[in-house]
Design brief:
Number of domains of chain A: 2
Order of helices and strands of chain A: HEEEEHEHEHHEHEHEHEHEEHEHEEH
Distance between the termini of chain A: 17 Å
CATH superfamily of the largest domain in chain A: Dihydrodipicolinate Reductase, domain 2
Helix content of chain A: 25-40%
Oligomer: homotetramer
CATH topology of the largest domain in chain A: Dihydrodipicolinate Reductase, domain 2
Radius of gyration of chain A: 20 Å
CATH class of the largest domain in chain A: Alpha Beta
Number of helices of chain A: 12
Structural class of chain A: alpha/beta
């Protein structure tokens, strides 16, 4: 729904269409801050897609559905930005957590070769040309952006292990009502879940070229509606200064409008990036100048999902990366 | 579950049994502050009730189920404290909102004659002898206790109408996950619901002897787990002093351990009665000395449900009203 | 700070200046969702105001300060939009709650004659020409907009009294840390305050031409950061239909972009108007077709303060009322 | 205030006295769930202490004040349970964060020798005989209890480092209103603070015999009133089974009533230990059987402060450790 809102306001997007499973259905949009009204849903069909002359299809569908819709769209020359986990993972062992049942496994494998992981700060060039963009997971966005500069600069002692202790607001758990998302279960509480078993770990390992044993990930459910904060622990191979660490981040993200680097001792907080497409990154260096704590924040519904999808679309059509996201 | 916790700690209750619909089922008890563990549920059957020599049966069942279980229990000489709306209403027009389908309507009507509305501050004597106690609704408790002293003293200008603007935490909406109780729907929000149509209105009208047109009730869903605050508006028939109003409350509740009267300008807040069986009552008198705002707070899970049920049991067995509730 | 953010993004505002009491001070802006950074504050002086060629001065100052700054600004031909309570009240008895100490009472009285109450839905024409606009209080906005259509149409039985039970998020209580705004005091709580004595009552009475005894107002502090919901109770002089009531609202606000009328049974919720400049209005008509419950919601920092100030500026400069507010 | 509530209800405590800085002052007690009333404070003086025949003095004072009051109390034969950081630290380098200014450094050093760190699960025997008990910090309690069994069993690869990512509710930050504890700063937010510099680190290092470089601690401020959850990362020296890890915890805490061990995959959540004196401990073992994530929860106002103080008193007087804490 955040995506619908962003597209409706995007200056270069003409009459976006909101498809739903069924005809005539309208959806209430309580999550839209500026709009409590209802939106018309078109019943989805390929005929409708063609009639409406859809250029790019955003899929906010379960991963199984994305697995079957994306090939069909591409056959018709429609570009796809998929928000599910369907097309993010290259390695078979990581895909196991999704357990895909493709009707044509060879076609799927071929598409997987073409799919581009939609993290613009890492893959802008390839996204620009992509037919199929796999929009990253919300946790994965916060972790990969915090670690990529350091790992690419080869300053991390990977043998000592990297840990991400991540905390997410409840909208990351989806709209489906459940005991877990019941207000009384979440309020005045904090809980860890999926320790050593969260689905986003595969993306993180692949994008950062890490081995399973080198990375530990613990997600937690926060009593807030939205926002993610990841506290990441690692050890530098050699002692460094704060200035050197900050420079490493700033150089890597020079010219990237949606990543903000904080100068110590200022640190990101969830509030700072809420309702924005920014990924905020800050850090603390230990007194031994080797232990490093990196903190990154994203709004899980924007930079962690819909905002990043629009950013990808901007790149795919040669528009300014910030268009429609301010 | 609050009830199970209270009974487990009650000094005069021997080995309480927790019955459930199915055998061998155990229930997680995340609401119990002091206990995140699981409790054994006995599969419910009348044979089990007899075998366990149950004296009093607390029914925390849907009202339809209470409607059928209560007669069976009473046949067997088991006293019943029912926490549903099944036995609270005498007048047919009020019962319409529950739409009962009794297999033996005559038996049900007879039982209804015997049922006592379980508000100890109003009906202590009758509760002591009752076989069937209808434990009041949470909103109803907060409203009736705030109004009864003034209405009994006939100082209210009933023609001008009485309004209760009530606000409740989410546990009042039940444990069932739904879009309405999803954390993201409730957090950072407030909403009114069931305006002019809430089920507790009938109880309030009957207990206070009010006509439908004399009482307006608007419940709201608060972004907190538990607690109710009712802000009640009425007009006194004659100008009065603060001291007279306070005296009216204090005299009515003299000797009642679970009602606390606040002296102006101090007012109850939800926090003050949380995790206690108190109903807190305070008020503000307008500069015209006739407009009166009464504010009452209860913990909807204690004085508004389980705590009141235990208070009723205490009366039924001749124990101190505070037993097991501190 | 919301105002600073809005002005920074407004398409027709050139280089807004942020003045502060002291030189070189910078302010952290944690409330700005899209921006956790610091802003430069210019030290305030009339020389600076002139040098920067300020056309319109927004005053987000204590009312005493506004009382002394506004005359100075107007002498210099600078238009003023004041967000305090300094210039909202015509009647002396209402001003008593503010206890102004004007150095030149006659000048102040003269200015008060020229000041326009900045509620664009009521006073658009006068605001367009005003030199001094008194931006309304947040509660007052939510109450006045909900009542004006009915009172202007003379369909309210004023003798029976009008009640507004209003609930506000904590940002309405200001940025100053206090025991009352401490997280632990507010969370898991609800409390009423200033019953029969809130400062916004005067504005409401004056704008709606009500007598003191005709209106009762109870504000409550909600455990949420922002948003106001007012539940308003009144009695219609004659029985009416839902359609008639809705038509009364829709006709009054025809062409007004920032008021949304809800069709029963849909009701506004705080979430729907958060982060927007909308005032949402809905209602429930009682079964007697005379008792009416009106519910209105605003974001207290936008339509209740900064957004309305920008809306007023738009009118003062002949721009579209929605400019810079989407 | 939690302590006052616990002592007032403790079966073996006779007429506890609440001392305050000034005479005749009464304190509001909004944090007491069951009691929103006011308590009388006795003005503090040694004469009053003697007159009231105080056996044991609980100090909930700033550490500087505890540093000066404790020696005076002990001179008079009064036992002391100090809730500040004044007497917790043996090593000079850890005490630096408190910067004590003792009037008689030698006396203080002597007392420090006698002071016992009041963690009953580690030092029950010494606490029983102690004149001066230093009640542990809230974070320290959650971390030390989670790590002690594993470190004592020497199964941790200390060289690889131990990390505690801890999250606390706002009551841990004290009652003083500040920008940091303002509702609007905390709600819908999460922030890390005092990374590599929190005062409780010294206690943790001393109690667990760790070197500074072996332990990394990051506290976070949660948008909830109370409760702490620590997520602790370490590596076992040798691969182990879940059963072995669980046995290590269970054996260590056999017979200790206030520590609950969770069997995987169940994990503690903050809600489970709220309003109780329990420390809940659970864990997840990685697929490599060496990486271990330990999760521990306490209520920071009970096991993390007042509850633990009463538990210490129980030991000092030979009473059951659970007395007055259920």
């Amino acid at each position: 729904m955040e995506l619908a809102r962003l597209l409706a306001r995007h200056p270069w997007v003409n009459s976006p269409v909101l498809f739903g499973r069924e005809a005539g259905v309208t959806a209430e949009v309580p999550l839209l801050p500026a709009n409590g009204h209802r939106w018309e849903l078109e019943p989805f069909s390929w005929a409708a897609v063609e009639k409406k002359k859809v250029d790019v299809l955003f899929l906010a569908t379960p991963h199984e559905t994305s697995r079957s819709l994306a090939p069909e769209a591409m056959k018709r020359g429609v570009r796809v930005i998929d928000l599910s986990g369907a097309w993010r993972l290259r390695r078979k062992e990581h895909r196991a957590v999704y357990d895909f049942h493709d009707s044509d496994p060879q076609l799927a494998a071929g598409l997987m070769e073409q799919a581009v992981y939609g993290l613009p700060e890492l893959h802008a060039d390839r996204i620009a040309k992509a037919q199929l963009v796999a929009n990253p997971g919300c946790y994965a966005t916060s972790v990969i952006l915090a670690l990529a500069p350091l790992l690419r600069a080869k300053v991390v002692d990977r043998e000592r292990g990297i840990i991400s202790d991540s905390k997410s607001g409840v909208s990351g758990a989806g709209k489906e009502p459940s005991t877990r998302t019941h207000f009384v279960s979440v309020a005045d509480n904090l809980s860890a879940y999926s320790v050593f078993g969260h689905r986003h770990v595969g993306e993180i390992l692949e994008q950062l070229d890490l081995e399973t044993t080198e990375f530990t990930f613990t997600p937690h459910l926060l009593p807030i509606p939205r926002g993610i904060l990841s506290t990441i622990y690692l050890r530098l191979g050699q002692p460094a200064t704060e200035a050197e660490v900050e420079a490493c981040f700033r150089e890597f993200y020079a010219g990237r409008p949606w990543v903000r680097i904080f100068t110590p001792p200022q640190l990101p907080q969830i509030q700072f990036s809420l309702y924005s497409n920014h990924c905020d990154i800050g850090f603390c260096l230990g007194p031994d100048r080797q232990r490093l704590v990196v903190i990154s924040c994203v709004d899980n519904l924007l930079k962690g999902a819909a905002g990043q999808a629009v950013q990808n679309m901007n790149l795919m059509y040669g528009w300014n990366e910030q268009e429609g996201l301010n």
